[in-house]
Design goal:
The complex is a heterodimer of chains A (474) and B (216). Chain A is 45% helix and 11% strand. Chain A is α/β, with parallel strands linked by helices and 474 residues long. In chain A, a hairpin with a 4-residue loop joins strand 2 and strand 3. Chain B is an alpha/beta fold and 216 residues long. In chain B, 55% of the residues lie in helices and 10% in strands. Chain B contains nine helices and five strands. Classes of the chains: A alpha/beta (474), B alpha/beta (216).
């Protein structure tokens, strides 16, 4: 096999070039007050062009205060055990469209969809971290607060979400702290992280900057999530695009660590390579997993968790394309040890969430997780004795060893292993099975609820932004 | 002699060489060749060939974009020298911009390039634009179509505000409104009363032709 470059070759090069760009050109901070803040913190600042640069000293300090032990927890305070040990899988999000739970119709997503999709993620064993996955388009601009609250009350798994306006960060933080039992309890066992995206190359909107600074002031973990588009907002080579991704993220690692030392940060990328036939951004392409595996490498290089876009698809229905793309975009991320693989439930290039795809993603994840274990090495004396005793022509099925071990293999919940005749008789498709399972979870799964007091408190907080707000099913 | 320079101009566009196109246009003017003929026999032929190669799948967007850039470079030289009464033929005039609160540029610019390459005159007013800025550009250009882009779920509602403002300005009968951007859908376009929606830059061209009642 051909020799591949080691990830050290890539990470050293990408870091070095990012530092060069950040020292020579810098990054845009389109807000005079924040520019002034950066100037007094020691950043070289250029008021005309609204650019700031980093210095070796700032970089060194930032990488020193950057927490290397970021962990996520369940609402109960229990550690998310898989985090840091293997790739965890997270819900996608948050587009404005959904394929309807019952009819499959493509329509605008609602508050009810948020509740149902979170409930399903709570029930699915392979989903480790939950997102609202869709925007509640029936609630107006302040929907982000409801999305956060509904996520935290419909699952006890860790949650990732954001506010779109800095005016709502304080309310969002109150919600997060209320659920955790206070700021100190939260910081001890964080079960929530937020997420903000730059516009590549080298730009964050003033609103997103204000949001990040407010979350950081409360010590809440922030994901710096690049959405670079190779060939459009970044170079058309994978390495060139990775330099843009890393430059944008490194700039804000330095800013956030300088202004709020010790803020927990995650290294995120949901980047992709533009399709030059159409100008669309295909998320099921092999390059999707390839480029975001770079974020897994760079996250590890800086010692912080990575959140990488994969398990993605451009398919419009649960078909062969969906199966191929979902697996194909997850493999590079598994291979390079992404801490979080970000994509459960998404289809149609991330523009639509699908209930049936979400159910099938759970099946895919179970399968790839099993495959990823490889051949474990262990003491084989029992096997060797068994082989000797059963050679020639023996049958291993009645051996106790078989009984103890066969369940370690993967058994599908949805995929058909039936004979043709049986399959035909059942008359089920993957689509119909997934739909029924989604409906069944929505009807019957009971997430562990918050106490009535906390729910009332959340309603009170949300009402400051959405008058008369009440949870539907308190 | 003139044919040779027309052909070279066309080739500069097909090859995507803005500097060559500009130099050739300059050279043509110096030689006293009719600028309108340079446009019609050179540039238009070139960009049509680029369009053909794109439609056949030989060219992708980068070739198309750099071809359009080459055409623009030559037009910038030739258009100011058009004689009194001479006018470049265009399919229609389009104002394009990204709505207030939204800073996303690439999709909108791509639509502009595609429309330019297909014979439209395009005025791109940039990003984060108030309805009044769109309206000023529509009036100034006497535009047939206005295109409003929004990438964010939070800013797509600005597209509706723009339509309302165009109505209030009494321009709704004069200008067709088309919208686009990742979160935008056909049903959203209908809901807010837009004249059209295209899901990508390529379908934006056929949409614009349809709205102009022009054969594609």
């Amino acid at each position: 096999m051909a020799e591949r470059p080691t990830s050290e070759t890539i990470t050293d090069l990408v870091h070095e070039k990012s530092v060069e760009i950040l020292q020579e050109v810098g990054f845009c901070v389109p807000d005079d007050n924040i520019l002034a803040l950066l100037m007094s913190a020691g950043f070289p600042v250029f008021r005309e062009s609204k650019m700031a640069r980093i210095t070796p000293g700032l970089l060194e300090n930032a990488l020193m205060t950057l927490p290397k032990d970021v962990r996520l927890h369940h609402r109960s305070g229990e550690l998310l055990a898989c985090f840091g040990n293997e790739s965890c899988f997270m819900g996608a999000g948050t587009p404005v469209n959904v394929f309807d739970l019952n009819s499959g119709e493509h329509r605008a997503a609602t508050w009810e969809d948020v509740c149902q999709l979170v409930t399903i993620q709570d029930a699915l064993p392979q989903v480790d971290i939950v997102r609202p996955t869709v925007t509640a388009t029936d609630l107006g601009p302040a929907s982000d607060l409801v999305e956060i609250a509904e996520s935290l009350r419909n699952t006890s798994k860790p949650v990732v979400h954001r506010t779109l306006s800095s005016d709502r960060v304080e309310a969002a933080v109150e919600i997060v702290f209320a659920v955790a039992g206070g700021a100190d309890a939260f910081r001890l066992h964080p079960n929530f992280a937020t997420v903000y995206c730059p516009i590549s190359p080298g730009y964050f909107t003033p609103e997103n900057i204000h949001c990040m600074l407010r979350w950081a002031a409360h010590g809440i973990p922030i994901t710096l999530l690049s959405m670079a588009m190779g060939g459009a907002s970044a170079p058309a080579t994978l390495l060139g695009e990775l330099i843009v991704i890393n430059t944008d993220i490194l700039a804000w690692i330095v800013v956030l660590q300088t202004l709020y030392p010790g803020t927990p940060l995650l290294y995120g990328s949901v980047s992709a390579m533009l399709d030059m036939r159409t100008g669309l951004l295909p998320l099921g392409a092999p390059e999707r997993g390839m480029i975001n595996s770079g974020a897994a490498m760079m996250g590890r290089y800086y010692g912080i968790p990575s959140m990488c876009g994969g398990l993605s698809s451009d398919a419009k229905e649960l078909d062969a394309q969906a199966g191929f793309e979902k697996v194909n975009t997850a493999i590079p991320l598994l291979m390079h040890g992404a801490d979080i693989i970000y994509g459960v439930g998404a289809t149609n290039a991330g523009s639509t969430i699908s209930y049936t795809q979400m159910i099938f993603d759970d099946e895919i994840i179970a399968g790839v997780r099993r495959m990823w274990q490889g051949i474990p090495v262990h003491d084989v004396s029992e096997e060797v004795a068994l082989i000797k005793s059963l050679t020639p022509k023996g049958n291993f099925m009645s051996a106790k060893h078989t009984l103890r071990n066969y369940k370690k293999h993967w058994y599908p919940g949805i995929i058909s292993r039936d004979t043709y005749e049986t399959w035909k008789e059942k008359g089920e498709t993957i689509e119909s099975l997934c739909r029924r399972k989604a409906q069944d979870i929505v009807a019957n799964h009971q997430p562990v609820r918050l106490s009535a007091n906390i729910e009332a408190e959340l309603e009170y907080i949300i009402r400051q932004h959405l008058p008369d707000f009440r949870f539907h099913n308190r | 002699m003139n044919d040779e320079i027309y052909q070279k101009l066309a080739q500069a566009i097909i090859d995507g060489e803005p500097e060559d196109a500009e130099a050739l246009a300059q050279q043509a003017l110096e030689q006293g060749i009719d600028p309108l003929e340079c446009i019609n026999q050179g540039l238009v032929k070139g960009i049509q060939k680029v369009g053909e190669l794109f439609a056949n799948g030989d060219y992708f967007l980068p070739e198309l974009i750099i071809g359009a850039d080459a055409m623009k470079a030559a037009l910038d030289v030739l258009e100011p020298s058009l004689l009194e009464g001479q006018k470049r033929e265009v399919v229609g005039k389009v104002v394009l911009g990204t709505v207030k609160g939204d800073l996303h540029e690439i999709g909108k610019t791509l639509v502009g390039t595609m429309l330019t390459a297909n014979g439209f005159k395009v005025k791109d007013i940039g990003v984060d634009k108030e309805p009044q800025e769109f309206i000023a550009a529509i009036k100034e250009m006497d535009a047939d179509i206005v295109g409003a882009s929004a990438l964010l779920t939070t800013t797509m509602l600005q597209q509706k505000k723009l339509i309302n403002a165009i109505e209030e300005a009494g321009l709704r009968d004069k200008v067709k409104v088309i919208i686009g951007g990742a979160p935008v859908t056909e049903s959203f376009a209908k809901e807010i009363g837009a004249d059209g929606y295209a899901e990508d830059a390529i379908s934006a061209v056929s949409l614009a032709y349809r709205l102009m009642d022009a054969p594609l």
